[in-house]
Design goal:
The N and C termini lie far apart (about 105 Å). Helix 2 runs antiparallel to helix 3, helix 3 runs antiparallel to helix 4 and helix 4 packs antiparallel against helix 5. Strands 1-32-31-30 form a four-stranded antiparallel β-sheet, with no helix packed on it. The protein is an alpha+beta fold. It is built from ten helices and 64 strands. The chain is about 20% helix and about 40% strand.
Length: about 850
């Protein structure tokens, strides 16, 4: 009986194998037949001139062949029709071939021919997909599934949404793909798998407290606080207790059938999808921040380096290169596209690690677009498409940034801006045809140049419907409102939008900023070439030059104070996330990590670097010394100009503030313990300890008075007496504290959290109160009898004598903390504009 069953099974297996071979051979023969048919059609056309027969054979291949056959057939049909001067037909066939090609060079060639055979401009935007409710999550690619806020699960197909099912209320969905849906019910007592179109769950797993989930095909990796599980849609393959707590799944490495975990030991662990075993790991000294799995290769960012690995061959790196503040990495054709926080984009050769090309941009994110193009997305809503050498192809501005990565599915491209629609873009646009919005912008420019103002509004209305972030359009609208004495608020908005959006359109930037500067009465308005991450640059000066630091780009800029133009930029070394920076007119000190670098602003020399016993917390630069306190409670004194360490003292075990006063240093930790050190050797003075109630936020000293801020209270200590301090109660918490000199007298300038500014005498007498609003940093810059403060769309000068506003400068695009040098007031907007106003 057993032998009979075996024979029958063997017979059935043989039959199935034979049928499979017949099917495979048929498919192979058919594919071969299509290729032969295409070659025969070319022969008939080129050698025998039988055009109609060749076209018929190519049309048949386009109808019956696979995607490669279709791409070739449409390609040759397009060439034949163009040679016959049938541009409409040629254009159609070129479009069809372009939509299917996987060759970069051919895509660029086809886009040129598609443009040459068309008389229509490119609208770029296609009809949007309307959504019932906003998107909650997006899953997968080819196809892409959407989970909407109302629980609907949809699939994008041919520029429309198919609603597949509705998720039960309150469940948490981890993944949706062709296999099905992985989710956790409302009571969170299990993990459930349900086939995509099934009405009931297929399998339930007793797994709770899920922290991370990763699905690959019919396998899934599930991480809880104390357990790692590997599943398929039928059973639990294996479970591992405790070993991988805190790890985060980074992806699936197909060549070895392993999941990749990024763990707290600064290592990538490769977990077998078959049994959960670990056969290899890739360890680093620093935290692994970014991981890119690209076929047989793996790339990671750790510390300030990009590493390349071939994990199937070995776990040591193939190469490594320097990479600072990396935001994201993508595989882009034969290179890696790397975006740094500074906006610098580099193309790195995958095999050698050599930089093929690098540019600076205002991009805050990058994503592949059409074949062979990369999209640079800015925080202002701009998209700039570049080619494989990072040369710009086309530019478009939506006036607001995307809220998630572009959805590229089934050959179509969609953008989501957080509302109830998906914006559909022409997926194969290469910038060869002029955009319709660009034609309208040219019309608006012509109408403006001829001052035909009555014809401008309808053109602008049409332009903004197509491209809401067109900087030139907003510029022309601002000119129109000025000419027609329009509403002041509308005029300010038009100028603000024109200036904000001009930064991502270099062709229009200078014209717009020049005209804008005249409109607001500025000496100049220029664009600072700093990274998008540095939103409010701070300024300092040395002699006649202005300086600013871009921490995200690790660069120091020197600016011409007369024109606002950049004189030079210098790399200052990789900075950590919270560097401490102080300066005077001769020296710049930057403490990052466990080191301090001291620059002489009067010399182009290598900075002096000293090691610190801890990470810097606060720093003061005086005429004779630099004082540094650390997070672990040390105070250091560095002598100038030699920049030698004078002494280092362990004062507290927690961070503290310090203030130099004559021959003494007042030190107060954040918990309110105040002591006094003598300056010469840093020794604690006897009987100098005091206790201040509450958390301490500010500490400043004059020669006779020490001021300490705690919450909404200001304490003034007379240093020569042991009397209790004078306590001044504020209406709100103190956010800034300064000592200023006004007519030879020392006074305290106080900023509160509600943006109120107050002035007190050294003895604590109130002098005036100013109600501020909309300031980014409510700490005024004091110069020549005025306290200068940004107030949103203007910078005001407050008289130190009266506390009243006596000067104003308009900054419709917003402003940051002002700075004054050579009778010019400088302020930078959050959009990286540098204003210069003559005083």
């Amino acid at each position: 009986m057993t032998d009979k069953r075996l024979n029958i099974g063997s017979y059935c297996t043989t039959i199935r194998t034979a049928l499979a071979l017949v099917w495979f051979c048929g498919v192979f023969a058919f594919a071969e037949k299509m290729e032969t048919s295409i070659q025969e059609a070319l022969y008939l056309f080129e050698m025998k001139g039988e055009t109609s027969e060749a076209i018929k054979m190519l049309e048949n291949a386009a109808l019956q062949g696979d995607e490669d056959d279709k791409e070739k057939a449409y390609f040759y049909l397009g060439k034949i029709q163009e040679l016959s001067d049938n541009k409409t037909s040629a254009n159609f066939y070129y479009e069809q071939s372009l939509a299917r090609t996987n060759e970069v060079a051919k895509a660029y060639w086809l886009s040129e021919r598609e443009s040459a055979t068309s008389t229509k401009p490119e609208a770029l935007l296609r009809a949007p997909i309307q959504l019932k409710t906003p998107i909650q999550k997006t899953f997968g690619k080819n196809p892409t599934f959407l989970l909407l806020n109302d629980g609907s699960i949809c699939k994008i197909k041919d520029d429309r949404l198919d609603i597949i099912t509705v998720a039960p209320a309150y469940q948490q969905i981890f993944n949706i793909d062709r296999q099905g849906i992985w989710y956790q019910p409302a009571d969170q007592d299990s993990l459930v798998f349900k086939a995509l179109y099934a009405t009931t769950p297929n399998k339930s797993y007793p797994i709770t407290g899920i922290t991370h989930f990763w699905a690959e095909g019919n396998r899934a990796l599930v991480q809880t606080e104390r357990q790692l599980s590997i599943l398929n849609n039928k059973r639990i393959v294996t479970q591992i207790e405790d070993k991988y707590n805190g790890c985060v799944p980074e992806g699936f490495f197909a060549p070895t059938n392993e999941f990749v975990l990024n763990c707290t030991d600064n290592a990538l662990h490769f977990i077998s999808a078959e049994d959960g075993s670990t056969k290899k790991s890739i360890a680093q000294f620093d935290v692994i921040k970014n991981v890119l799995i690209d076929k047989s290769a793996l790339y990671l960012i750790s510390g300030n380096y990009l590493y390349a690995y071939y994990p199937k061959q070995r776990t040591s790196p193939i190469w490594k290169i320097s990479a600072n503040n990396v935001e994201s990495i993508f595989s882009f054709e034969k290179e890696i596209a790397l975006l740094e926080a500074s906006g610098r984009i580099s193309l790195i050769d995958k095999r050698s690690g050599l930089t093929r090309k690098a540019i600076r941009s205002d991009a805050s994110s990058i994503y592949p677009l059409a074949k062979g193009t990369l999209g640079l997305f800015s925080d202002e809503g701009a998209i700039t498409a570049v080619d494989t050498l990072l040369n710009p192809l086309w530019h478009f501005n939506f006036a607001k940034p995307i809220e998630q990565a572009p959805i590229y599915t089934n050959g179509n491209l969609y953008l989501y801006f957080g509302d109830r629609k998906l914006v559909s873009l022409s997926p194969h646009y290469y910038g060869k045809k002029i955009l319709l919005s660009e034609i309208l912008a040219r019309q608006a420019a012509d109408v403006t140049e001829h001052e035909e103002w009555e014809d401008l509004p309808p053109i602008l209305d049409s332009l903004f419907k197509l491209e809401p972030g067109n900087a030139e359009g907003w510029f022309f609208k601002a000119l129109y409102l000025e000419q027609n004495k329009g509403n002041e608020r509308e005029k300010q908005k038009a100028w603000s939008e024109a200036v904000r959006l001009s930064g991502s359109n270099p062709q229009a930037t200078q014209l717009i900023l020049s005209r804008y500067g005249k409109a607001i009465g500025a000496k100049f308005v220029t664009m600072l070439p700093i990274s998008p991450k540095t939103r409010y640059p701070q300024f300092f000066s040395s002699k006649k030059y202005l300086y600013t630091i871009d921490p995200a780009a690790d660069r120091l800029f020197c600016i011409n104070a007369e024109s606002g133009e950049i004189r030079w930029a210098k790399y200052i070394g990789a900075l950590d996330n919270s560097p401490v920076i102080e300066n005077d007119e001769n020296t710049l000190a930057i403490a990052s990590g466990y080191n301090i670098s001291i620059y002489d602003l009067n010399k182009d020399a290598t900075p002096v670097t000293l090691q610190l016993p801890g990470k810097a917390f606060k720093m003061d630069v005086t005429e004779n010394a630099i004082y540094i306190s650390t997070w672990n409670g040390f105070l250091l004194k560095i002598l100038r100009p030699d920049n030698k360490l004078a002494w280092s003292r362990k004062v507290f075990s927690v961070p503290f503030l310090h203030s130099k006063s004559d021959r003494e240093i007042f030190v107060c930790n954040l918990e309110g313990d105040l002591v006094v050190l003598e300056d010469e050797a840093g020794q604690t003075l006897e009987n100098s300890t005091r206790k201040i109630p509450g958390q301490i936020s500010h500490l400043l000293s004059t020669d006779s008075i020490t001021a300490v801020a705690s919450g909404n209270k200001l304490y003034l200590f007379n240093q020569k007496k042991k009397d209790p301090p004078l306590q001044i109660l504020m209406e709100n918490a103190i956010s800034s504290l300064q000592i200023i000199i006004d007519h030879g007298e020392r006074k305290f300038l106080v900023g509160l959290s509600d943006q109120t500014i107050l002035l007190y005498s050294e003895a604590g007498a109130p002098l005036w109160k100013y109600a501020g609003k909309n300031a980014i940093f409510p700490k005024p810059f004091v110069k020549d009898g005025y306290a200068w403060l940004d107030q949103g769309n203007e910078v005001v000068g407050i008289s130190l004598k009266t506390g009243k506003t006596e000067q104003k400068f308009s900054t419709p695009g917003g402003a940051g903390t002002p700075f004054i040098l050579n009778r010019t007031l400088f302020s930078a907007s959050p959009k990286r504009l540098l204003y210069g106003f003559s005083l």
